[in-house]
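Hi R.,

Here are the chain sequences for the assembly we discussed:
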Amino acid sequence: MKVPYHWLKEYVSFDASPEELAEKLTMAGLEVESVEHVWNNIITARINHLEPVKGSSHLNATKIFTGEGRELSVVCGAPNIKEGDIVPLALPGAQFFNDAGETLTIQATKKMGVVSEGMLCSPRELGLSSDHEGIYILPNDTPLGVSLADAVIHLDIKAHRGDLFSMVGIAREMAALFGAKLKQPEIKLPEKGKNSIKKMASITVKAEDDCPRFTARVIRNIKMGKAPLWMAQRLALAGMRSINVIVDITNYVMLELGQPLHAFDYDKVANHHLIIRRAEPGETLGTLDGAMRELTPDMVLVCDESGPLSVAGVMGGASSEISSDTTQILLEAASWNPVNIRKTSAKLGLRSEASSRYEKGVDPELALQGLNRAAQLMAELAGGEIVPGYLESYAHPSPNVTIPFHASACEWLLGYSVTPEEAAGALRSLEFAVEQNSDDGSMLVTVPSWRGDILESADLVEEIARELGYDRITGKYPTGDAPEPQAANWFDIQYQFRRRLQQCGCAEIVTYPLTNQRSTLQLLTDESDTAQLLIGAVDELAPAEKGKKNNGKNKQKQQSAQSVSETYDQAIPPLSADELPAVRLVNAISAKMDMLRITLMNAMLETISANLRYGNASLRLFEIGRRYIALPNSERQLPDERRTLCVGLTGYTESWTEPRREYDFFDMKAIIENIAGGLHMTNLRFTQTQSPIFHPGRCALLEVEDSHAKESRFHTIGVMGEVHPIIAERFGISQRTYLCEIDLARLYLHNTPPRFQPISRYPALTRDIAVVADISVPAQTIADVIKASGGELTRSVTLFDVYMGDQIPEGKRSLAFTVEYQAQDRNLSDADGDFLREQTANELKKQVHAVVRE
Amino acid sequence: MLDLLRILQESALKALLSAETSAEIAQWQNLYLGRQDGELTKILRGLKDVPAADRKTIGQRANEVKNELEEQAELRKKAIAEQELVSALVAERLDVTLPARTLNSGYMHPISQTIYEICGIFQKLGFHVIEGPEVETDYYNFQALNIPQDHPARDMQDTFWVEPGQILLRTQTSPNQIRIMEQTKPPVRAVVPGKVYRNEATDATHEAMFHQIEGLAIDSSTTMRDLRGALEAFARELFGPQTKTRFRPSYFPFTEPSAEVDVTCNVCGGSGCRVCKFSGWVEIGGSGMVHPQVLRNVQYDPAVYRGYAFGIGVERIAMMRYGINEIRLFSQNDLRFLRQF
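And here is the predicted structure of the full complex:
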């Protein structure tokens, strides 16, 4: 809210500059966003002399007198000025508004050879109204040389303090802060005429729950015209344009007291009878802003006998609007149900100064004060005659809220002790009524009607703390009971993953979890089954099912390439795009962010693509975040938020010490093995698979051995591979790119603390072995056979060569391994080595039809 | 014969002096002392033709010459080897300013780093770290926090809805206050880091998704002074021992009394600069004593238990710590940005 500094002085005496006041208000909880100085170097002045500028059709050279010193020469093009007029004069340095609403600064200049030492201002140039017909002519009795300079304090009033949306409300807080007295505007009502209002108008409130209080007055014989400068000026500083004296008075009183008002043209209200009721289905109203509004039965209206006149508390209708012909006013001051106003305002997409106040609650006790204040001003400033009496419907006056209170409640919450006198004094300064019981320090506090936010003891403690100053709440090292120490949890586990990945040279990214279906489906070359996107998203049921089925298959088939969903997500039936279990937003900020991600992969590819555009050619990136899987058949249930790791790799490694080498599949595999091994998940395996996201020959399913099951059993935890070139292209990536997505909960479920292996005192025996097998036999399978055939003696099996070509039959390849054997209790002899080799050769032949080369 | 030996000795020693490398020494050894065709070997081989009477004398002399030549050769060899090592080392000089070999070093996102640092500080103060769901119910995000339907405070937080009025993307980490208190009995001390969402247009200081850290401490003796003490300890550890903290009255529906928390600007040290908008203070979050209605909502008796809650904006703190002026850099994930942390 914009609060003009000088206006406040009318209601409270204080000695503080605008900046000092701002600081004081902020520290009392009325947050000041900024202090703006306006109308510097603009003063009132009189035109002493006026003559046309030679050679110009419209410019006049004027001599201007500011009350002292010499006359100033100002050139002016406005048609409406004459000698003797008192006008606002902008001196060099002053700022004004042009047609476009931009701020410009006045400079001394020469126009057609005549010196101009300033500018005479129109209402628009001062920001008072949109009127730019001519210079703002001030009343004849305006004193000269008066500066218009003022400061506007921009306050961020919180929603619970509806009472602070007015000058008096803020002055009341200031009175407490400065130990001063609040000066309410004095209301004098010169009622005139014999006829009481009862004979001239009537009200019927049919919707009493929506309208706690309604008051009205009639003012006759008003003279329409402009509001005086001081009022236009205050309205402008508070952010409202001057329109005409009647509308300006209703706005002025709203700003002054916080009571919104509405002025109807008395003669346009059928039978002068106001009816407050809910809208009928199908009713419409043309509002003041020129729009035709469709009304619904939950909206409250002020109507006459022929139909709606205004949307209560939100906006008036055009049909009963004040015009230049208006002579009689039917003035409304009411209070409305905040929730109803809020809903109506939201539904109509219409927020006004009035509705934003009503939404926060306007004290019903304020209605009559506001009504009378506005009537008074209409009499004083528009020559109106106030018809004796007023109309009122006040169905349910709220009783005063009283709260039993004890000063010890302050210490309970604030941590320092407050005497009953201090507490009572602080509350009284904010106009709470306090009845103290001197025996036990307790008190009964009556809450002022405008403080609907104060409901219980804790609320009073805050008021007292504010008045005493929050600086009294000094810090102390937290003591008190602490909970039991916490066991390691996901927060710590994820930290370990992040550190590991960082050690692998990866940079962490954090992307928006909000995405859209199109971007997600771009990950699939074949959209007929989107279940491929849900790696690791089904629970433990799926691997168990898989185990059963695989028992029936022969080993060869198990090892052949299968799709991700076939080998693993048995529990997820094929899904069409519409069936994706995604969490979707009903009020998305844009169509690009209308659902929560079900995979991290598309955001990773988008990030890689963007980085390539930025010129970052080599990327090792990872993200640890959640995927959000809507659970089937579970309305009102929250989705499954699955902790997930995504790694993306593209580009090359290059330095002056080694030639450039493009990253490949095995760089990605190294990262995965490093983090799995580093966190003791050594029982990780990579199985050839296919997925519509990846290169058909370069995709692996990631599985870990179940550390809890008795029989050997593997669970799928993720997938990795080279991104299918078609997919990469869709994301604007034209170089080989590798992706991996792992369900962290599944990965971490099977980590086991390391087991110590005794270090043998006997030397190891090293043998090289070259195996010729079908290309389709995975290297891992051969290594496993070699390892198993050495039994406990095998220390390590390390591949050192893969060869195809001369001397190797078509469709086969040679894999060369170094095998290290070691016994705990003896030296291994050459004979042991020969025996192990023989045994290994036999097993390889039997299990994978492989031949050991001599 | 003796003459022959003398001449040989002289010429051999002379040749030895002119040998300058290990290879030349080896050549020299081969020439004079070689088993097959060495000059001395040849002379010794001729001994059989010498009259028996002289044989002993000449043989002795020949051995002396042989020993001396071998001895001299060894000395010369050693000297040369030393010389050669010195020149080899000189030749192997490296320019130590050449760049290092590539050892890929990665980077943790500044948001993650900030979260770990902040939570780490509170862990030292005995707080648990707990995470909660990002997709929340209206009850936890609003109602249980004393923000009923149609409460004007809902305007403060534009909400992304999954099911209107029922399920939403959490607008704050505060719903975890309720979740934690529902699941535990006091004493409670916990911080909850995580993503939150607001349906707002983005600009240099606003994102529709950002990170918060919620704090909660409840027991039978905790007051607002403990709150301030905890936040002061936190601010000093994060921003340096000179950092001061200030409380300003504020409004949150789920705390009473409520306070906004400011710290002295760590860019200008409190004297005023653009980062702190020349106020010397930077707001880091909201806080207050847990509202009695919130305590009642989780069946904690407000006459027995009391405590505080706070919420800290992670992006704001990261921006302040690292001097980042644009919040959207966090979600752009440009490697040139990430590499700086």
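Chain B has two domains: 2-91, 110-338. Strands of chain B lie at 128-129, 135-137, 161-163, 167-169, 188-197, 209-219, 245-249, 255-264, 281-290, 306-313.

Let me know if anything looks off.

Best,
T.
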